[in-house]
């Protein structure tokens, strides 16, 4: 079985706060998997990195990680994050992320016997508007 990372990982940014540049934030997300290829019937993890490129502190960050249907999601943890699980998705929330900071969420999953190529996705948003655009595609590592 091969664990693959979703080919499009977006950073969707809301625009609920005024145009004052000091209140804007540019959040992005990247996903790394622990091993490639992943043997069937084993646990592995995704490292999700959320970053804030500024120019202001990101407020009310929401990270949604959707695991492939052939994976059994086990847990998601990260310092400063609250996590809820629903089916194959984790919704992670964080109050704030300072300019230039990054925060990691680790998602543990199990690959079943039928899993071959799996693809998981992550999407991040914040209440602040993005000074660059309303949608950014993040590099996949």
Question: Could you list some keywords that capture this structure?
Answer:
single chain, 141 residues, Immunoglobulin-like, four-stranded antiparallel β-sheet, 54% strand, disordered C terminus
Structural class of the secondary structure composition? Answer: mainly beta
| First-last Cα distance | 19 Å
State which percent range the strand residues make up.
over 45%
Domain module count: 1
State Rg.
Answer: 15 Å
Number of strands: 11
Individual helix count = 0
CATH class: Mainly Beta
Unreliable runs: 1-18, 133-141
Helix content: under 10%
Major β-sheet annotation:
5 strands, mixed
Strand order of the largest sheet: 1-10-5-8-7
CATH fold label:
Immunoglobulin-like
Mean pLDDT: 79
The sequence of SSEs as H and E is EEEEEEEEEEE
Overall shape: it is: elongated
**Assembly state of the chains shown:** single chain
Question: What's the architecture in CATH terms?
Answer: Sandwich
């Amino acid at each position: 079985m091969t664990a693959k990372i979703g080919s499009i990982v977006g950073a969707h940014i809301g625009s609920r706060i005024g145009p004052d540049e000091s209140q804007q934030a540019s959040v992005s997300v990247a996903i790394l998997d622990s091993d490639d290829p992943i043997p069937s019937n084993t646990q592995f993890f995704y490292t999700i990195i959320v970053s804030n490129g500024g120019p202001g502190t990101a407020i009310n960050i929401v990270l949604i990680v959707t695991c492939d249907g052939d994976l059994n999601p086990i847990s998601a943890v990260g310092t400063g994050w609250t996590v809820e699980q629903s089916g194959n998705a984790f919704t992670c929330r964080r109050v704030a992320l300072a300019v230039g900071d990054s925060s990691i969420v680790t998602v543990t999953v199990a690959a079943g016997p039928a899993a071959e190529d799996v693809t998981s996705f992550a999407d991040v948003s914040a209440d602040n508007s993005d000074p660059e655009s309303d949608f950014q595609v993040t590099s996949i590592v």
